[in-house]
Task: inverse folding
């Protein structure tokens, strides 16, 4: 299994995207977001997605030269019309805009419409947290998940992320989907021939199954709770910015791949608590110092596992599976880009 330095992997991915028609700036943004995920061990949203992004750019589903427009009708609110820009391009711009709005107004809320595959949304909330603010992100997309009481895929596996900055501690970083299991995980079980967990996935007609060969979609986390969250995220992202996905998809009016998002930045200073970050640290410490359950070595908070993986991979390199390396090699040959050294 090839193991590559994150910087070399980022440079390589950026070169591929630039050859695919994006600007150097946009290529670097996409590469940065994907490699960030790989470094943190979120391989399903990392460099394994490079070939898919190249396909999206080649097919025109993603616009390599988007005309991104920002509509800012009120002081603390803006909408980014992405013109089908790759998600990392649009959402990184939206995160920075949310921070700027929050700096001026205390809170900045930015909707994103007409983008494609946003990548790991924890990147964007962490970017907001690194600016000293609380970051919140919601994403809605195409129906790939069941909805309680409905046959077949009805809603998206819409993710939610919250990042809260600390003082001496790293930010608490929650990044989760509304699905019990990711589509990529179902594929991994299929490839290995191992059964799926009970209640995690279903056949095309919505019948729960543990057979990965029959499973076509994940089921919502917590049943009606997860499906309800996904619907709510569609309403406060897609519908809010006038770019509904589910209604158009299920009516047959528009089934093109697309995603929408909502990013919020909150400046703790605007809430009058000068001790916010130190109190975040105190809260985390209080939880982590509680007696552990039997068989548990350490109490972890959201983001700690991936941070530990990042520390190791930044030092040792990012492993790339043989299957993904083969696809990256093929893409490198097709675009005339040298492979990074291992």
Result:
């Amino acid at each position: 299994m090839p193991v590559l330095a994150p910087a070399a992997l980022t440079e390589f991915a950026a070169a591929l995207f630039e050859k695919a028609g994006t600007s150097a700036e946009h290529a670097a943004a996409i590469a940065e977001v994907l490699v960030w995920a790989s470094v943190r061990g979120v391989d399903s949203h990392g460099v394994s997605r490079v070939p898919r992004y190249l396909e999206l750019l080649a097919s025109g589903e993603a616009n390599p030269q988007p005309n991104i427009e920002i509509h800012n009708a009120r002081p603390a609110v803006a909408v980014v019309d992405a013109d089908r820009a790759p998600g990392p391009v649009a959402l990184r711009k939206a995160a920075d805009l949310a921070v700027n709005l929050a700096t001026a107004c205390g809170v900045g809320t930015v909707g994103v419409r007409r983008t494609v595959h946003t990548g790991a949304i924890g990147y964007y909330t962490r970017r907001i947290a690194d600016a000293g603010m609380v970051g919140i992100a919601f994403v809605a997309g195409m129906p790939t998940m069941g909805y309680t009481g409905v046959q077949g895929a009805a809603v998206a596996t819409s993710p939610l992320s919250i990042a809260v900055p600390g003082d001496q501690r790293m930010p608490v970083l929650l990044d989760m989907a509304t699905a019990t299991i990711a589509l990529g995980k179902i594929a991994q079980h299929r490839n290995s021939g191992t059964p799926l967990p009970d209640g995690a996935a279903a056949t095309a007609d919505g019948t729960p199954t543990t057979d990965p060969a029959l499973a076509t979609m994940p089921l919502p986390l917590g049943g009606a709770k997860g499906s309800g969250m996904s619907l709510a995220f569609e309403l406060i992202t897609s519908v809010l910015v006038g770019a509904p996905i589910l209604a158009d998809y299920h009516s047959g009016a528009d089934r093109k791949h697309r995603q929408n998002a909502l990013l919020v930045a909150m400046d703790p200073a605007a809430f009058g608590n000068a001790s916010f970050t130190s109190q975040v640290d105190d809260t985390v410490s209080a939880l982590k110092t509680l007696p552990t359950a039997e068989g548990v070595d350490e109490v972890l908070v959201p983001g700690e596992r991936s941070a530990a993986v990042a520390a190791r991979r930044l030092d040792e390199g990012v492993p790339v599976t043989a299957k993904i390396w083969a696809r990256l090699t093929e893409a490198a040959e097709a675009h005339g880009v040298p492979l990074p050294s291992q």
